[in-house]
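Question: Hello, beginner here. Any chance you could explain the protein record under this note? Any guidance would be welcome.
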Amino acid sequence: MNNIFFNAHHSPMGAFASFTLGQPGAKGGLGLELGKPADQNIFIGCETSTPDVFEALPFYAQGADESARFDVEKAEGRKADAPRLMPFERAGIRREFKLGTDTWTAGDLAFRIYSPVASIPEPGKASVRALQLALVPAVLAELTLDNSTGQQPRRAFFGYQGNDPYSSMRRLEGKVTGVAQGRITAIATADAGVRSGLGFGIEDVVAPKIEENLVFGLGGVGALTFTVPAGKKVTKRFVICFHRDGIVTAGLDTRYLYTHWFKRLEEVAAFAVKNFAVLKSLATKADALVGRASKLSADQKFQLIHAVRAYYGSTQLLEWKGKPFWVVNEGEYRMMNTFDLTVDHLFFEMKFNPWVVRNALDMFASRYAYRDDCGISFTHDMGVSNTLSRPGYSTYELFKLDGCFSHMTHEQLVNWVLCASVYVTQTGDKAWFKKQRGIFAACLESLINRDGQGTGVMQRDSSRCMGGAEITTYDSLDVSLGQARNNLYLAVKTWAAYLALEKLLGSAIAGQQAERCAATICSKVRADGTIPAVFEKDNQSLIIPAIEGLAFPQLTGCKDAYRRFAPLLAALR
């Protein structure tokens, strides 16, 4: 793509944290448990051939002199100094955006970020070492300054301006050299020749008039700097760290699983720098997953890379009552384990972390299942913004509505069946299936009861709607995708769920329901070959998501489904 200036996540796995970078200005930064970027100034740059004049990547905004807050009289008569920090010309900046690495180059400067994309071992089964490497809440970076043709030493720097008003910036000393905001975020290194400093502005840190003032406690900007001699090219390694201690959720008392091994921010940094080479290798290996050999188009690769990065930036691996609890937050809304997203993440998670699928299904079955007049179903989500909702209820679903915020009872029932069926089929986890067989059977009964007219398609709205109407995950759209009852999109997913239950339970009734569902869909084909989005009130809308459910027979081992239901495929085609 032509525009390289877009934000991207660089995130540890399961830490709900992101080093966001790419949008010019103060649009990125070190964010922890946020629904948006941290909106911090990020300083990545170097000295030019002119002493004490610096260039930086354009990820900062020129702001007022912070010292003016403390010295008003002098501020009124102070003349602004000529800027010593300038952004690189954007036309000369290059970016190479991959799955595990993101590289920026400008002039003699190169900055590369390494993000983990790997399987997370299952807690309780994996070694401590494997879990530490997977879950350390840090991402890596390398900053290179090529001064091989220079005639004098030049400085390079990497830092940020914290914007949490209740956590000051501070320096890290000891096993690592670094700068941090309180106890939550930090940039650190163990490489020799790097110094840390604080100041009102980045110039105060990279070109201090008095070296001893680098310890200035009121400084809101923290940075790490190093000097490259003339004729040399030097690379320094950095770790970008996050940490949240103690109980982090309400409703249920949970904490981050990584706190078992990393009690403080400094311990995160020390482990990450010590294992830099191993962690870097994992990130570079990930690039090959969406590399040149991939059959995807350039646009598809771009979309996939962004999706994976955003996914990891939204994940939390928590601990509740001594057991792991996997949570994926819904972007800016921060709803926890939204079920209609769980079914979308299913394909990725089955490739990398099948155990997290089982983990979410168990929590839905044990805490977020409920019964209405038709039988069992599951909630839309498990909570929002680090607050777990009460058992059997989501944070989203309300009563007596027929649009946004109504219940998604039928869709979430179908989603549990599909996720669970894919998990069992792909993993062969017979013990888990045996344990949950009663839930599978209850789901089949509930699906049949929601038909009510022998069509195989949902006909009855849940009693939880209290006279309203159920909706689908496409909740903000019109009736064509908003209404669940007699909806084509949901009908095809229901057909796939019946097929999975037929196979797993050996249920002839489930097979009959799948046949009825397919027949009903085929009967709605109009003279021009189209199928209405909703089988009610002469609906004329046409919807692409009608085909979503076709993926599942392939993944649930129902290999003969496409031949057996050839008329359905022909109708949908």
